[in-house]
Design a protein that fits this description.
This protein has helices at about 5-15, 20-25, 30-45, 60-85, 105-115, 130-140, 200-210, 225-235, 285-295; strands spanning about 50, 55-60, 90-100, 120-125, 145-150, 155-170, 180-185, 190-195, 220, 240-245, 255-260, 265, 265-275. The chain is of the alpha/beta class. The strands form 3 sheets. Strands 3, 4, 5, 6, 7, 10, 11, 12 and 13 form a 9-stranded mixed sheet that branches. A two-stranded antiparallel ribbon has the order 1-2. The protein has a two-stranded parallel sheet with strand order 8-9. Helix 1 packs across helix 3 (about 30-45), helix 1 crosses helix 4 and helix 2 crosses helix 3 (about 30-45). It is rod-shaped, with a radius of gyration of 31 Å. Mean pLDDT is about 90; it is low at about 300-305.
Length: about 300
């Protein structure tokens, strides 16, 4: 038996103050416990217990030894528990690359659910454009990236997730602000605030496709974050394409409206990207949660690990 096991038996003997009761609690023979304790005392070269008809009591040396033994056992048990939770992906660090708005919507709900299920996992968020996030995945700087669906530039694992409506943010006093929904042709003559960051380049491509043939677009490219862009919208400097995850952000003087095609709201599909070779234990439970929340029913989704 290991010395750690001997420590546990000695602690049990001191707690029960009786070798018989301690042996019952440990589910071993009293003679076995007595022999192991004497062997431990022999190795230490000092008596740990006084044995009398009234019971078993630690000696002065035994009290000091047992205090140290308890600390060793507790620290060892804590280390084993921590290791087990890490191996199961229930603790540790998960790095997620995103560029979608987080104020509401599926991404926010997903991260909230993950925190409730795995509160000991520290989630580190990384923002950036598509190429940057794919590069970070390749370099193992990210565990997973959640971005718009595309097969371009990624030949490893993918998992289909959700779709989000395309939204336009306009100033309250804007003529389009009174509309419940907006059709793409109604945006043909607008000034569009386009961010160099995150979703900006992809939304610019969507804009070009939807307004093709309706004249040149007036694009005001900006190198600022979402909050600054919405401030510009509220000041009447232009309109902003975004996704429904933005609508939880309330800005004075700004309203959000859906953009429709002939078939209804324009939507953008999202997908999770990761490396099959990624060995971070926290990734597996996160992927399992994604599959549970967003099961693919098409039967032809890209193969996911």
């Amino acid at each position: 038996m290991s010395e750690l096991g001997d420590f546990r038996w000695a602690i049990a003997a001191s707690q029960h103050k009786s070798l018989r009761q301690a042996a019952l609690a440990l589910n071993i023979r009293q003679s076995t416990l007595s022999r192991r304790l004497r062997d431990l005392e022999h190795r230490l070269g000092a008596p740990l217990f006084e044995r009398t008809n009234a019971g078993t009591r630690p000696t002065a040396v035994g009290l000091e030894f047992l205090e140290s033994a308890r600390r060793i056992v507790e620290e060892t048990d804590t280390a084993f528990r921590r290791l087990k939770t890490q191996c199961r992906g229930e603790s540790g660090r998960l790095t997620i690359g995103v560029y979608a708005p987080l104020s509401t919507g599926n991404l926010r709900a997903t991260l909230t659910d993950h925190h409730h299920r795995f509160p000991q996992v520290d989630v580190h968020m990384v923002d950036g454009g598509r190429e940057k996030l794919l590069g970070d995945l390749t370099a193992n700087a990210l565990d997973i990236a959640i971005m718009t669906a595309s097969r371009v530039g990624w030949n490893d694992r993918r998992l289909p997730l959700w779709s989000e409506r395309v939204i336009v943010a306009v100033a309250t006093q804007h003529l389009l602000g009174v509309c419940n929904v907006i059709q793409w042709p109604e945006l043909a003559n607008e000034r569009f605030l386009i961010s160099h960051r995150g979703l900006g380049p992809e939304l610019e491509q969507l804009l070009a496709a939807k307004l093709h043939g309706l004249g040149p677009q007036r694009l005001l490219r900006q190198d600022v974050g979402l909050d600054r862009l919405l401030s510009l919208v509220g000041a009447g400097r232009g309109v902003l394409l975004t996704l429904e995850g933005t609508i939880g952000i309330h800005f004075d003087g700004v309203v959000y409206r859906e953009i429709h095609d002939r078939d209804g709201p324009t939507r953008v599909d999202f997908m999770a990207y990761w490396r099959e070779a990624n060995s971070n234990p926290t990734l597996g439970p996160f992927l399992a949660m994604l599959r549970e929340r967003y099961p693919d029913l098409s039967g032809n989704a890209p193969r996911a690990n």
